[in-house]
Amino acid sequence: MFKNYLKIAWRSLIKNKLYSAINIGGLGVGMAVSFMLLLYVYNEFTYDGFHQNKERLYRVMRTQPNNGEIYTNQSMPVPAAPAMKKDFPEIEHVARTDWGGDHLLNYNNKPLKMKLVAADASFLQMFTVDFVKGTRNDVFHDQSSVILSESAVKAIFGDKDPIGQTLKIDGRTSAKVTGVFKDFPSNSSFKFKAVIPWTLYEAENQWVKQSGWGNYSFQTFVMLKPGVDLEKLNTKMRKLIERYDPNNKENKLFLYSFTRGHLYGQFKNGVNSGGAIEYVRLFFFLAIGILLIACINFMNLSTARSERRSREVGIRKVVGARRFAIIQQFLGESILTALFSLVVAVILMAASINYFNEVINKHLVIPFNNAWAWGAAITVTLLTGILAGSYPALFLSSFKPVKVLKGVNKTGKATLHARQVLVVLQFVFATSLILSSILIYKQINYIKDRPVGYVKNGVIEMDLEGNLAKQYQAFRTDIINSGAAVDATATSGSIANSNSSSWGINWPGQLPGEDKIPIDQIVTTFNFISTYKLQLLKGRDYIPGRMADTLSLIMNESAVKLMRLKEPLGQIVKWQGRNCTVVGIVKDFVWGSPYEPVKPAIIGFDPNWANQIGIRLNPNQPVSKSIETIGNIYKKYNAEYPFEYQFVDDSFADKFANEKLLGTLSSSFTVLAIIISCLGLFGLASFSAEQRKKEISIRKVLGASISSLWFNLSKEFLILVTISFLIGSAISWYYMNQWLLHYTYRTGISIWVFLATIAISLLVCMVTVSWQAIKAALSNPVKSLKNE
Amino acid sequence: MEAPMIKISNLEKFYRTEEVETIALNKLSMEVATGEFVAIMGPSGCGKSTLLNILGMLDDPDAGSYIFNDIEVARFNERKRADLRKHNIGFVFQSFNLIDELTVFENVELPLIYTGVAASERVKRVEEVLDKMQIMHRRNHYPQQLSGGQQQRVAIARAVVNKPKLILADEPTGNLDSSNGNDVMELLTDLNEQGTTIIMVTHSEHDARYSHRIIRLLDGQTVMENIMV
């Protein structure tokens, strides 16, 4: 019997090629997209899951009051780790690391920049680092050692054995390669390719050893002994800093699961508030939604064709088939279709995974060799087949043979209603997406158009490293004389990313406790205001050559407001232990989050704090030419280092990376949902046109015009789409409102958004339905009347 | 005396639309003995097809009794009717009603599949009956590749492959030319002579003459019975 079903299924697929193609293709596209989304979801859920001790691994976190809120982060003082190990017997291992930035690794005068981390040797006992050469117990025996990942070895040494070779790090530290480990999977929080022992880092940076409990500059990880009560330990942990630094009661420590960190590790006002899990949920919802509308499509198209299958059902029943046998047959067909769609989906996935990775900025890999993944895919496919086939199967199997064989089986109003509900469901999903996409883009543009307070076009920034740090002034003069740049300044960090703040600042009229307020700080040399073209409201910039300006200070408007200074110029503010005179006030500029109000900020002066150089390119010369000139000059100063730079407007745009991703995804899914929904609508339209053939013919014989017939046939669908719009817009209005509340600076949900959405929906609907309607309206009435 | 294969009494069937009720069968009673060949005649709308559908258990009566082989089936549910039908009754239609996606062989095989006959046995029985109907050479063709007469022979083959006790034929020659029509009537007569009971609805006096008895219906009632000699 099964063979017979398969045969019929196969032959009816072959016979109706267009219909089969739409069905298999539609379902295949839906499956491909939802599988890719599920792949992402799986990838996120297994993030950092490869560490064998994952259940016992924790990150040490710290809370600190800040401007009436509680600020939570993971930067730790250096002495915390040894103190924890000493005070808490529950802890098996503890390890400190730095933040793992890019460093220059030089072997035989071939310098390469790579992510390198400094870590305590215990790090290798806690986390799963898979050694190919060397073992975790002995690689850091010697202080001057470095271990590398396989890809780093390949890049630096090629096929040569790296063990025992010496690398020069950042042009000064020598370290011998003692171990090679397998690269971490892409869904790991650790991105570094090289590790040096903490002892080496301390030896190279003397200040580290001396830094006390008030300097939060590193990360600390903990591995607990089995069976430890986390809550109890956290209660004790809270007071650790205070125990060693009695004046420091504000900073409290606690442990947070290392593997949970990626998805849930965001804190708002001291409370765990989620994290990437929100995106995972969104993706999961989209995956299910897309699959569902693809299924609905399948149902609609299958039932639309029911007239043609009804005779077969009648015959089968006459020769002895029970209803259950018919249900089995149609489910068999839909499962077969779903299996073909799986093939299409796999091909589509293979073709588009790279593009998808690019969009979401991940490295997802289709797990072709994973039996579990195939099992899951086939299970989902079978379920999809059953779901998609259930309604058509129940519907078709209910036909009465007497009626269908006589051709009087008028599929009743009930089925039409069911199918209308399905179409409405699809379009609710589609309109929600249309509306959300428009709002996401509106919000991005709103933020982008917000005045930033400086001119971000035509400025590049690069690291001040190697010789350049010593010969900055000469380099500056050279690039300006070459005509490539018009101005340049050395700063502590990029103007596009706030990355430093300080407390313990004193000002006249300060209230008790206000010295604990952290204030953003950017430390500069001369020419800062002129290079970035900030707006100077009062006073002056630092005067080139005047080193006495180390005792001067520039602030932004918000800082003046915070300090309640009526006449700020000339006031003495204590910053970094120095009594500085306020010499200038600049208009607020967006340094941190573009979605938040500008925070108080100090622009300090300290030539020894420079890490970066900002260069304003010559606007009268092509950018590429200026960059080339600067690159050539850079090589003269820093031959060892690669010439790397970043445009400030690009760095600024990176702040919208999440929103942009959301926008791209949402608009792609909108297009997809519209296409799939239109296929469903097309199905319903053809069904309705076929059903109403006789009515149309009679109307035509009686003199109805083509356009009136077209309207008559299309009206029903326009109503359906309008209903969907009402439901869909209510849903997305609610959710988008919630989403916008995340942002202090946010766009409004204006009426034109709704108008645009309904216009798009109706237009798409009309285009889809009209083809069938016009075809029906143009058909020869004699033919269909004869058939009756 | 042997009990009749079919005994219906006071059978009623109505068709209702929202406002109008049409009587298709009006307290109809009749009997058909095992081995009989009965023709049912009458003008359009007299209730012939309704009667045939009820006899074939494709439809149920609104009132009255229908005893098939000593079993009262008038109140059977669809599942029970389907079970009884597939073992006992074969159908032949005016428009053949073959499944276009299946070959001749597969169409004939279908009833055997639904009655759960083993595959090897199916092949034997299908080949046997195709041979008898002289369409063995067309076994791998699809219905649309056959002439009307050939299609009806396939349909008859399908109706008899399960060795039913009763064959119901609804204007079996209606779509055929006279020569093919005669062939089909000869086939039915042969089957009847081998013991199968046949009830045939027809408009054609010529075809009716092949039967033993003609029942004439008008407005859902028997108006006359002719016994053929």
From TrEMBL, chain A:
UniProt domain ABC3 transporter permease C-terminal: residue ranges: 285-398, 668-777
Domain MacB-like periplasmic core: 20-239
Main localization category: membrane
Official protein name in the record: ABC-type antimicrobial peptide transport system permease subunit
Classification via PANTHER family: ABC-TYPE MACROLIDE FAMILY EXPORT SYSTEM PERMEASE COMPONENT 2, MEMBRANE COMPONENT OF TRANSPORTER-RELATED
UniProt keyword terms in alphabetical order: Cell membrane, Membrane, Transmembrane, Transmembrane helix
One GO location term (cellular component): plasma membrane
Residues passing through the membrane, by range: 21-42, 282-301, 330-351, 371-399, 420-441, 669-689, 717-736, 748-769
Organism, scientific name: Mucilaginibacter oryzae
Topology with respect to the bilayer: Multi-pass membrane protein
Compartmental location: Cell membrane
From TrEMBL, chain B:
Protein name according to UniProt: Putative ABC transport system ATP-binding protein
Keywords per UniProt: ATP-binding, Nucleotide-binding, Transport
Family from the record: Belongs to the ABC transporter superfamily. Macrolide exporter (TC 3.A.1.122) family.
Domain ABC transporter: 6-229
The keyword ATP-binding belongs to this UniProt entry's keyword annotation: yes
Entry's Gene Ontology molecular function annotations: ATP binding; ATP hydrolysis activity; transmembrane transporter activity
Gene Ontology CC terms, in alphabetical order: membrane protein complex; plasma membrane
Pfam short name (any one): ABC_tran
PROSITE patterns: ABC_TRANSPORTER_1 (PS00211), ABC_TRANSPORTER_2 (PS50893)
Domain of life: Bacteria
